[in-house]
Design goal:
The chain contains 7 helices and 5 strands. It has about 160 residues and is an alpha/beta fold.
Amino acid sequence: MSNRLKGKKVLIVDDEPDVLETLEDLLSDCKTETSTSFADAKVKLDSGAYDIAVLDIMGVDGYQLLKIAASRKIVAVMLTAYALSPEDVAKSFNDGASFYLPKEEMVHIKSYLNDILEDIDRGRTPWERWLEKLGDYAERHFGPDWQKDDKNFWEKFPFY
């Protein structure tokens, strides 16, 4: 696997310092900056040029930060332990995120981010690979018919 992350500038936003530390270690090939609050992250997004923003959903108002990142054309990945639901997958997609990552899976973040950047470079949506890589995870956590409650969304979802 080629390392598309080398030298990329990544903003990591989470209210848990241990999560920030872990992600900084996992993304050691990147130039990382961290933030533990919405206000600080907003200032950084408004003033910095980032390639990727990894945004916790809960605790830092991640969806508001996603709007800022999307408006600045920053690749955004939503990270969560608590907003773990089919509705949050759909909201992340609809609001412009490139990926939705459960914190349980953050140990693989380097691989996921490389995949996202590869997909974007090739003009593909990273969400196709999301379904390939995390579809089984979603089924285990949300149940076998997890997509049935929002059929309208999933019928329009890329590559479903």
